[in-house]
Design goal:
Elements lengths: L3 E7 L2 E6 L17 E9 L2 H7 L15 E8 L11 E4 L2 E2 L5 H4 L16 E2 L15 E4 L2 H4 L1 E2 L3 H6 L1 H4 L5 H11 L7 E5 L3 H12 L4 E6 L2 H9 L3 E4 L6 H9 L4 E6 L16 H9 E8 L14 H4 L7 H6 L3 E3 L9 H9 L5 H4 L2 E5 L3 H9 L5 E5 L7
Parallel strand pairs: 10-11, 10-13, 11-12, 13-14, 14-15, 16-17
Antiparallel strand pairs: 1-2, 3-4, 3-8, 3-17, 4-5, 5-9, 6-7
Helix pairs in contact: 6-7
Length: 393
């Protein structure tokens, strides 16, 4: 196979290196006859990857990155019944067994069996079970019949691969944030963060029927792109009174639903980190009995945090305000399998041009380090890696 992959080598650094060819086995060496091996067609750089690369998690050097994977089946275990060599599939970033209580109830983001350290597994991510990442030429996917979403037509899938590659994470994640915030027909919505997940959340709010979707950020390039694809930008650099800024747009300082697509590396107007600022703003601007979806990542350990409390995930939230307003909060890893089939249909039937919305930009796998550096600078792009040159062709 001659596998190569994107390897985290230390804070601020990744390299494309030769890595082991995948096998039908678990990180602990167990044989996995329910697994398949994929030739990776596309694999994306995610903002969650950047948290590790910045040194803001306990990730160790040597970790093969990548949890947003679309691929072609090239080998199957003897227990795989519903997939065959040649199938083109989307891989949910969640590694899930399909058998435990959480999986049976649809909560595949917190599978109880695939990670000995805690609930929930993922490819190429710290503390998520040791599963090898898919920013590579080839990758192993366990519990394949349960996890993989097969595209109905290979040629159609390859023609829409820039959109379909978003099904592995950011589109279902954005949709989960919008849905759990209670977005529906006529909703007024505020999304914090104009990065790819924020744009995916905004796109999801729109197809759920929102009347207006605002996106707040400090990054002018990302705000310009958000406006270009039809959302209302809120330039947070122009003031620190978010309710007042929203009222200037809608006539009311409150919204029906708010979505935090920023997470624990949030920054305030001072330029310094304020990890709870977005959560506190969400409670302030969301109406009484409204909903707050939180697809933005929060961690239990952040060695680079601004204070000792935040280093262990303890944030200074004004939770009493949210309680007094009877607001609903929803957090946690997105259970991709709840949404990816419906979202696939929306893409295939031209209802959701997500690649254009997030400005999908294709680059070769061997240029991944440049992609990480560019993404970290805040460009208004979602980088899609092309390990075999199939997208470029």
């Amino acid at each position: 196979m001659s596998n190569i992959g994107v390897v985290y080598t230390g804070p601020g650094a990744v390299e494309v290196q030769k890595i082991d060819d995948p096998k039908l086995q678990a990180p602990d060496g167990r044989k996995l006859e329910h697994a398949v091996i994929l030739k990776v067609i596309s694999t994306n750089i995610c903002g969650s990857d950047q948290h590790m690369v910045r040194g803001r998690t306990t990730a160790e050097p040597g970790l093969v990155l990548g949890h947003e994977i679309t691929g072609e089946v090239i080998e199957t275990g003897s227990d795989v019944e519903m997939l065959k060599v040649g199938d083109v599939v989307s891989v949910p970033f969640n590694v899930a067994c399909g058998r435990c209580r959480c999986c049976r109830e649809g909560d595949t983001g917190v599978c109880l069996t695939v990670n000995p350290e805690r609930a929930g597994g993922a490819y190429g991510y710290v503390d998520m079970g040791g599963w090898i990442g898919g920013q590579a030429r080839y990758v192993t996917v366990p519990y394949a019949d349960f996890n993989l979403l097969k595209f109905p037509d290979r040629d159609q899938a390859l023609a829409k691969i820039r959109d379909l590659t978003m099904l592995s994470d950011i589109l279902p994640t954005g949709f989960h944030g919008a849905l759990t915030a209670g977005v529906g027909v006529g909703s007024i919505v505020y999304v914090a963060g104009a990065g790819p997940v924020g744009l995916a959340a905004a796109a999801s709010a729109r197809i759920l029927g929102a009347a207006m979707v605002m996106i707040g950020d400090f990054n002018k390039e990302r705000l310009e792109h958000a406006a270009k694809v039809g959302f209302t930008p809120v330039d947070l650099s122009k003031g620190d009174n978010l309710p007042e800024m929203i009222a200037e747009i809608t006539g009311s300082p409150e919204v029906d639903a708010a979505i935090d697509a920023v997470g624990f590396e949030a920054r305030g107007h001072s330029g310094g980190e304020q990890p709870a600022i977005v959560l506190n703003q969400m409670m302030e601007i969301t109406r009484v009995a409204g909903g707050i979806g939180i697809p933005g990542l929060y961690v239990t350990e952040d060695p680079g945090a601004v204070d000792d409390a935040a280093k262990s995930g303890n944030l200074s939230m004004r939770f009493g305000l949210g309680w007094a307003k009877a607001q609903s909060f929803h957090t946690g890893q997105t259970p991709v399998l709840k949404y990816n089939r419906q979202l696939m249909q929306a893409i295939l039937h031209d209802r959701l041009p997500i690649a254009d919305i997030v400005n999908a930009t294709i680059m070769p796998l061997d240029q991944a380090a440049e992609g990480y550096k560019s993404f970290d600078s805040g460009v208004a792009k979602k980088f899609v890696l092309d390990p075999h040159g199939m997208l470029a062709s």
